[in-house]
Write a structure and sequence with these properties.
Six copies of one chain form a homohexamer. By secondary structure, chain A is α/β, with parallel strands linked by helices. Chain A has two domains: about 160 residues, serine acetyltransferase, domain 1; about 100 residues, UDP N-Acetylglucosamine Acyltransferase, domain 1. In chain A, about 50% of the residues lie in helices and about 10% in strands. Chain A contains nine helices and 15 strands. In chain A, the strands form three sheets. A five-stranded parallel beta sheet of chain A has the order 1-4-7-10-13. Chain A has a five-stranded parallel beta sheet with strand order 3-6-9-12-14. In chain A, helix 3 packs across helix 9. The longest helix of chain A has about 30 residues. Chains in contact: A-B, A-C, A-D, A-E, B-C, B-D, B-F, C-E, C-F, D-E, D-F, E-F. Strand 14 of chain B pairs antiparallel with strand 15 of chain C. Chains A, B, C, D, E, F: It holds the Pfam family SATase_N. Chains A, B, C, D, E, F: Pathway: Amino-acid biosynthesis; L-cysteine biosynthesis; L-cysteine from L-serine: step 1/2. Chains A, B, C, D, E, F: InterPro entries: LbH_SAT (IPR045304), Ser_AcTrfase_N (IPR010493), Ser_AcTrfase_N_sf (IPR042122), Serine_acetyltransferase (IPR053376), Trimer_LpxA-like_sf (IPR011004). Chains A, B, C, D, E, F: It comes from Ureibacillus xyleni. Chains A, B, C, D, E, F: This is Serine acetyltransferase.
């Protein structure tokens, strides 16, 4: 067939087939859609500049102007987020529109009311980065060039929404951070203050992890699940504790893998690079590979 | 020298030197250029919204409007892609312009005609993600927040172009996916339905891999080449089978490395995390590290 | 509280709290800010199109036009970069404005004067990619789809600024490359010509690394520090040699970890995948895991 | 009051007052809004490029591409216009949504079906400009730099919608043309082929005008109403014939004013500059001011 | 000279000459600049959407959202306008920065505090348009397609700033309206409620005009100055009453010219089209041209 | 027909008809197109900021930066304009591509070499506005809010191109000014220094006008042609002198119309408002309407 004819005659059929297939599996009306997804990214950028005012799109050193700029951002984002949450509460949780709207508004007020507290925790994360990396020379550098801060800022927001039982949106947030930084923290993970991930690419932190204070993690570390139980239909059973607990003051070096919901790393422990660990270790442990030296010819 | 003079007097010389050096190695006329690269990214976004209409830039629940929007996107992208393919066929394959244009048009029609089939396969990939991750709560969540779906959607398109012998463009597509997701699948790899990559950062799947149905892969897995033979000039010999075969129903855990064109993982096998494997294993194998437990002090 | 009231009454207080907390730890006036960060990204894009004129935003095959376009880009970027460097020299190095301006201008002229030399080195990197990957079919493909080239282009620029003692900005540049490619090269690292990183996701190259000529590295390789000494206050001592030396013609396979400032990999050595190495190896070494074969059931 | 307090405390009250006042007079839900207004402008630009394909945003000399581009534009604009018309039919004409949608779709199909005919008429207008202005050198120049063509193109579209009883939208279109060109043609005016307005600024053509073929008008000409009758409440009676008839082959020079619904300018007449005319003149008239020569001292 | 050389060698000289000439007559540092000009346009658009909330960029029917949107717009615009006014007060009125800032803030608060009152007056202008034009069918149509409303909205804002002795900015506002509508109202003119200009192109209303309530003006009307007195140096004496007074309930038809600061049009008068009037007329006058009928051959 | 079917089945036919009709009258390949038109507007904005550096998009008070910014703008615009002129010289003047390119480059160098001289003349125009309008308070105000300056700036550029026999482009420039200001000056008109147009809407200045020094014109003034002679085919004879000569120090008040190529207004004359003049007047004339006073009842 000639291109011209094909464009006029076949494309409408292909488009129709694609739309029809999509409708067999998804509701187009109910989806938050591409625009919703982009709005969430925009909200996160606004929240980031509220938490760190020197990251405002256009800031000046005039106090009134900074306050207005952040206030405006927060108001706008509060409404946008409230609308999106309302939508997913209707679609995923089957609330009616009035209840969903009311609940969405409560959730958003709840979240933003916690921003001063979140901000304080993020300052401890910045301090942990400063203390933990000899290569850095200032906290300003950390704010502008450490993926860890970007990932943990987004996580601490997404985690609040996760705790408030908001569907989908926290995961879109965490995946946004993952795309930017290579650090994949499920919004369900509970993470204490003074948290630092160095370099970060390939880090995976699972949904039911709990991480204490002052924990430091290097690139390529997985805090994951062991194989998970299936229900009678062969589907994974959702909602059970599957990921490890990391207690205070633990350091986990690059490429280490720690698996399982009943695996606990006791406080003050150090886990060496490339370690594969599926069992608990007590406080103050130092875990290194006992493998023979590499074969050098 | 003062900045002002340098800007006026030296910059033109530096610019000229840079252009001249570039021309020693590259043709500027023949390059697809920055604009071509950006166009490919835009085409992929249009294709994505055609495959998943809820990801349209602006969609509504009106059926006619969705169909028109996707039809328009496909028409526009078909022409843009056809133009780019025509260009690379002239430059890389030395076709004359008329032949290149005709062949490019056939290739594009071929590709888009397969979209309904590709879409069906992608639905199996979504199902595999749903079945394979206890953390997910809906297929909507998968569509909006799983890098695996983004990577495999682009791969299934790029792979068709690869099979149709289109130079360069499939690789630009796969690298685009790599940049977004950390998942690096060469467009040459052949991948069966119900494919799922969890987390995904650091996954590498080589050009001559074949992967069966219902395969699940975790972050950091490499399906790569062993050292490759050189020709008499010391250059790598291109185009030979270098990467492994993964049969149906195989699971490969995080950080495993499987190398070599004559390495086959038999169906229903499970490859443990961090495994380094350069030989075939039979069906139903379970491969775990036999290394001693880590040294815990 | 009703949303409406909360937006009017509480948001100003939350904004004020966030601004006040920020000011306790950061200076808003002195920060390069979001705009500065975005300007650095834009400068890097301009530099990239100067180094590779076929990547110009809008290029044509007309020689005068290409030269003008690149000259204009360089002039504009030179001024933007000079302004930003001036700012950080005042804030971080406590220079007065006049000295900072003069020094910033010198630094920028120094940097851009080296572009022809940098370009020549980048051509060796492209050649190394062509020689080192059997999957590639042309250098054009390498330019448009190899993350290695993007990462090393940015690194060679950032490294010049690092050597000229510019604070913060080189790190923002390297983190920009890290976000795009998953390759994290500290601007302090010294890297010889004919350098190639295949796939690249998860590669970490530390600040005080030195890498010789014709070195090839695969995804997931870490060239890092061993645990670092603390000063009497428990803070890491900054500025000491912490990362390994890689001599000429070394190949390091995927996932290998090489640590320590006194670790040297002798020339012509090959380091196998997933190797964990904290000691030097002599020239011509081949280092493979001596671990037993995996346990296959 | 200090600015800061005022921004936080008074602005919400002022905003509320403004919204409340607006609601006393207008419905916010029912308004086509700023976005609707902008959409109409965008539709007109798309229609213009459909009528004159060399005015496409990005056109090429490839036939298929031009056709696709215009087809896509028309499809998109047809849906956008249909949606807006549906909205105003509900709001202004009190149709129910189903009827309004059906009627809007008919109207749009009607309009666009007439485009080939409208295009032919516009070609006569271009010819009239070419014949009527010694300063022009090509029809290409007319297309790109004559406000007359822009105004009459939009008028011929708006007039079709006016005849199809679409409220508001035709007037938004005509005012858009007025803003661009200074030529104010009410969409109700009926205008024959070969129509040309030279310079055009200040031309006003009223709602119930009829203008024959081959009429030429200069800047500042008004074809207006005499004082209009009021109803018993003192409101102007709407919908009666108020503006003049201009027959074929008439020329009206700059600044002339012709008023009244029963004023007819007979064919082949010439009306001189600055003439004030409130009565009919027969065919072949030449109307000049009989005023004495100006007083020259 | 060859183009290439000329671009490198001559352009810097031409640029330098142009900058030097500019500096002979203007201060670059003190100018509000292109950005300031664009900011004023943006502020006017924000003010317009505050005065008419259905013209918000993105509005919805949700009350909270509209209020937040307008509140945010007003806050942002208040700060932007305050900054610009501060700048012109320093440059034109030679205030010091602190006084200028304080005064600018007062002026902006003053202006925006009057918005509810301005809005009420604008509603009378809309009503006057509705009453005065038989062609209109709804007030919605007037809001979206009458240049008069756009011009008078901007005038009522600019006039407040003029009364508060703000230099330059009110004129930039009025010229913005002039460019959009062809209606040129000097911000100094005082205009009563229920004001309507039909069609409007070419209307000029001078700085010291006073216009009463319920006045209606047609296109091309000039309310201007007679020749003005010069001072001893031959410069026009600024700041004296030069333009006419129009009392309540006057109608002035198209093209009429009324000149002079001591010319008063008494209330309830009607001035005919194209009238040239340089003297006062009493109440209830009807002024028509006594010129002979045009010469019709 | 249902909308859906019509969109798929009829739109391609309508698009094809419109393209075919267009091709009967215009060449799509040869047109400068929408993009060319937009480029001309962009060039004019760049030229404006070169002539008045305080109108740069982003200017600073740093001398080097302003010079670079203007130099870059001029270089870019020189190439863009040269390309467009080359195109029209091929299409309209039938030059071959090489000759057209060479000639276009000469024309552009010629034009921009005159910018310092044009700038000096524009300063006299600014002075004339300052001297001629008692309402203005500063030359800064004139630059930012007088349409006269915008129109005459563009005219002085377009006129140079007209004198260099560039087709079409000067008229696109003059119509751009016309759309912005309501002032329509044909690029052929020759205008002396110290030129000022007050208010300006509706002013028309014809192609073969010559205007001396220190001339002041008010809104609505036409300097036009009398009826023009036709050739044997009934087409207007192009290229003959059709518009009046205005000598030095003439003032022409609002709405005056002066017609004819052999009409000369002697120096130091004053032409009153609304005058209709088709004959020459000697030096020092004062021309006022001798019409009786209006009829006042």
């Amino acid at each position: 067939m000639k291109l011209n004819e094909w464009l006029n005659n076949e494309i409408p059929n292909i488009a129709k087939t694609l739309v029809d297939v999509h409708k067999d599996y998804f509701s187009i009306e109910k989806s938050i859609g591409f625009e919703g997804q982009e709005t969430i990214y925009k909200i996160l950028q606004n929240f980031r500049s509220a938490l760190f005012p020197c990251l405002c799109d256009k800031y000046s050193s005039d106090n009134t102007r900074i306050n207005v700029s952040i206030g405006n951002n927060l108001r706008k984002s509060a409404l946008d987020l409230s609308e999106l949450i309302g939508k997913v509460l209707v679609n995923e949780n089957a609330l009616n529109e009035t209840d969903a709207k009311r609940k969405a508004e409560e959730i958003v007020m709840n979240l933003i009311n916690k921003f001063p507290e979140i901000r304080k925790t993020l300052q401890t994360d910045i301090q942990a980065a400063y203390d933990g990396d000899p290569a850095t020379t200032s906290t300003e550098e950390i704010l502008f060039s450490y993926p860890s801060i970007q990932a943990i800022s987004i996580h601490r927001i997404a985690h609040e929404l996760y705790k408030l039982n908001v569907p989908i949106i926290p995961r879109i947030m965490s995946e946004y951070a993952h795309g930017l930084t290579g650090i994949d923290i499920h919004p369900g993970a509970s993470i204490g203050e003074y948290f630092f991930i160095d370099h970060g690419t390939g880090v995976v932190i699972g949904e039911t992890c709990t991480i204490g204070k002052n924990v430091k993690i290097y690139q390529g570390v997985t805090l994951g699940a062991k194989s998970f139980p299936l229900d009678e239909n062969g589907n994974p059973i959702k909602g059970i504790k599957r990921h490890p607990n990391i207690e205070d003051n633990v350091v986990i070096y690059a490429g280490a893998t720690i698996l399982g919901g009943d695996t606990t790393i006791g406080q003050n422990s150090v886990i060496g690079g490339n370690i594969w660990l599926t069992q608990s270790v007590p406080e103050n442990s130092k875990v290194y590979n006992s493998q023979p030296l590499p074969n050098i010819k």
